[in-house]
Amino acid sequence: MEQNAQVYLVGAGPGDPGLMTVRALELVQRADVLVYDRLVSPLVIEQAPPTCELVYVGKSPDHHTLPQHEINALLVEKAAPGRSVVRLKGGDPFVFGRGGEEAEELQAHGIPFAVVPGVTSCIAAPAYAGIPVTHRGMASSFTVITG
């Protein structure tokens, strides 16, 4: 699906630009439109080309720049043939994000898209603290639960 993608749902990792995947960085560096949230490092946004249209759609507990249905509509609107739209989300687009809803909207409109996973804070935060989420003989699994 990725060869013909117009929209990329991309995980930017847990905030440390060094944990962003090479593929995610490549897509940001060639994006025509970058739709990003508040958890994405400004150092990553700076990697977009000078001609790239930057669209901030960040959400915080007390303020949403745009409600999710408007973000979905924005992705559809920006996805013109020949344009590369990168929806850049903190962490992974399918872990506690609305990447699944965005994918459904794009699919419903026949817009080709691809998903680029990102490092989720569910793994990165404990790893940075030296805590394995699984460890033979101690913890054979872990659970991720949304608040």
Outline:
This protein has 147 residues and is α/β, with parallel strands linked by helices. Helix content is 28%, strand content 18%. α3 (68-78) crosses α4 (99-108).
What radius of gyration results from the CA coordinates?
16 Å
Q: What form results from the Cα inertia axes?
A: globular
Question: What's the arrangement of strands in the largest beta sheet?
Answer: 3-2-6-1-7
Largest pleated sheet: 5 strands, parallel
Q: Which stretches of 5+ consecutive residues score pLDDT under 50? A: none
Q: What is the N-to-C order of secondary-structure elements (H for helix, E for strand)?
A: EHEHEEEHEHEH
Question: Helix/strand/pairing class, anyone?
Answer: alpha/beta
Total strand count, please?
Answer: 7
Fold blueprint:
Blueprint lengths: L6 E5 L10 H8 L3 E4 L5 H4 L7 E4 L2 E2 L2 E2 L3 H11 L6 E5 L9 H10 L4 E4 L4 H8 L19
Parallel strand pairs: 1-6, 1-7, 2-3, 2-6
Antiparallel strand pairs: 4-5
